[in-house]
Amino acid sequence: MDTIIEPFRIKAVEPIRMTTRAERTRLIRDAHYNLFALHADDVLIDLLTDSGTSAMSAAQWSGMMRGDESYAGSPSYHRFEAAVQELMPFEHVIPTHQGRAAERILMGIVAGPDAIIPNNTHFDTTRANVESTGAEAVDLVIEEGLDPAAQHPFKGNMDLDRLDALLDEQGDRVPLVMLTITNNSGGGQPVSMANVRGAHTICARHGVPLFIDACRFAENAYFIKQREPGYADTPVADIVRELFAHADGMTMSAKKDGLANIGGWLALNDDAWAEEARNQLILTEGFPTYGGLAGRDLEAIAVGLTEIVDEDYLEYRIASTRYLGRALIDMDVPIVQPVGGHAVYIDAKAMLPHIPPLDYPGQALAVALYVAGGIRGCEIGSVMFGQQADGSEQPAQMELVRLAIPRRVYTQSHVDYVIECIAAVNADKASLSGFAITEAPDQLRHFTAHFAPLGESAFA
Ligand code: F0G
Hints:
Blueprint lengths: L20 H10 L14 E2 L11 H9 L8 H13 L4 E5 L2 H12 L5 E4 L4 H8 L4 E4 L20 H11 L6 E4 L12 H14 L3 E4 L3 H11 L8 H10 L3 E5 L10 E5 L2 H14 L10 H14 L2 H20 L12 E5 H4 L9 H13 L1 E2 L1 E3 L1 H4 L14 E5 L7 H16 L7 E5 L10 E4 L7
Parallel strand pairs: 1-10, 3-4, 5-6, 6-7
Antiparallel strand pairs: 2-8, 7-8, 9-12, 11-12, 13-14
Helix pairs in contact: 1-14, 2-11, 3-11, 4-5, 4-10, 6-7, 8-9, 12-16, 14-16
The protein binds ligand F0G.
């Protein structure tokens, strides 16, 4: 059969509160045109993030009932640790309340004022955790990874020549190299096994450890199975084990490919770093066998890790993201290609060439999608990245709107509805006008900035 179905039935449902266009026009105006300021029940289809928004399975919910809340040595921790080590055989597994806590602890130990941390592309919290120690975060993704229209099966790959050159010239300043799979900030693009292996070889030659930011490891492994010669018949779980065999450690947000609503971990082989990490963990997260999580959360992750490498699930997951992407390509809406794993990224700069980057075409598009159909996406462009440390403003490299797809939450008719809304906005796109920022904090302004429309628009 050609139809790829959702490989699950639905046992518990959450109602979606329907809204009218007139209501949404008022609601977004009252929210100062910032989609983060909306009440989530005023959103029909929430594609703000795939993080922490997964639907858990019956097995995960029953695992939660088994959660053991002992302060120290909980059996839930041991089940969690075993589930992680089944896929990622690192010596030390340190739970954290989410991914950025693992990043903060790791960077607190290894980085500092003179350090350089290379990555294919740092996710924004990773970059912030590097920079907050005084270190420099350097992005070394291959050139194709910066061109939304370029076709390449592994656009998340690290530029290994530049990595090698950096380690040759300034290796003594690099305490570790990171590799983000899939590369979220670059469009959810995968990294090939050859690239991970190559990065590891270069790192080993320079005596520098390689750490994987593993948030979407299962989606990355599935792309390897589909696209990299030699892996078509390898079980995804084996691909995952091979990926992590090339690394010395990892940070993880279980809110993505852990299929859980909260949680994360830091895993590594180095005993001295692990000891320091556990000491840091106790200061801010909790005892090393719960790390800021409840025992029941550890159970949800342990079960989630067995479900995320299920190939029927991954086939459906990647097919449903591709289904949305293909529909947009068919209607000539420019998107980052090939379609990534967890999200479709619309190229707002190409779609709305009449709106200059610093009039925020991504924000204009995101607001229009909300007004048209109650869809909430996320601007990833000059609103998010334009603000410079010295208070000035520079256009971002790309002006994207990310439509991130929560795992196991929406069905095909929800996606068809999203496609119809985008078609409506696309038909009227010349009428969209840009936005000005009227109020913003000094940092991370996208979360709280206020906007005002710069002209009349059919969707504002
Ligand atoms: N690394 C990557 C690649 C991420 O995408 C995220 C989160 C993190 C680290 C941090 O994990 O949220 O658990 O602290 N990404 C979310 C997103 C927020 O919407 O893409 P966290």
